[in-house]
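sorry for the late reply, my laptop died twice this morning and i had to redo everyting from scratch. anyway the thing you sent over, i finally got around to it. pasting the sequence first so we're on the same page, its 108 residues, then the predicted structure underneath. double check i copied it right bc i was rushing
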Amino acid sequence: MYYDFKNAEKKWQDNWENAGVFHAQDNCDKKKFYALVEFPYPSGAGMHVGHIKAYSGLEVVSRKRRMEGYNVLFPIGFDAYGLPTENYAIKTGIHPRKVTDDNIAKFT
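ok and here's the structure:
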C-alpha cells in the first residue's frame, strides 16, 4: 500500500498553521504546560530512530495537552557543540560547521 506522505503532511501542517494550533500565547488565562526534551545533536549522517524515540513521546503529550486546553510551550533547538560533531568531522574530513549546518537543515 502506498502512502502519499508529502501531500498528507502538507495538508495537515497547513491546517494546523492556519488554525494557530501550535502557537503559545503570553499572558494567557489557560493552564500552562511546559515540555522540554534534550536538544538533538546535529552531527553524524543525520537523524536516526533514537531521535524519533526520544522526541515523539513528548510531542504526543504536548499535542494532547493542547487539545485539553492548555497553553503549551514545547521548544526545540539543536545542541550543536561538542564531541559528536568533532568526531564525525574527523572521520569524514568534512568541516564541523558544514556538518552542523547541513544536518540542521535536514532535521528542520
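The longest strand covers residues 32-34.
thats about all i looked at so far, will dig more tmrw
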